[in-house]
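Lab notebook: predicted structure, single chain.

Context: the supervisor wants predicted structures on file for every construct in the current expression panel, including those that have not yet been purified. This is the next one on the list. No modifications to the sequence; it matches the entry in the shared construct table.
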Amino acid sequence: MSILNGILSESNEYYISLKQKIGKKLADLPKGSIKERSIAGQKYYYIQQRVGKKIVHKYLGKKKPEDLIKKIQMRKSLKNELKKVNEALKMLGRVKGKSRA
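Prediction complete. Output recorded below exactly as produced.
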């Protein structure tokens, strides 16, 4: 039983460190989404973000912001990965609780 507890403890430590790494990466990436508006046949790009309870649009220009779009997509994928890590930690917590009983 002590071997199982050791494995569970190592797994828990791994997921906690992974959660911290993902959190640091998320802090560096921009929040929001890119919106394209067509006004008089011209395309204009805005970033849409929530500030408090309001949704704010900031003008980015006429050129499609490819690098910003990639960063926002990276943030979304990291958020999904963080969700999976949190589920794994939750499951490990339940398994650890049962193994002690």
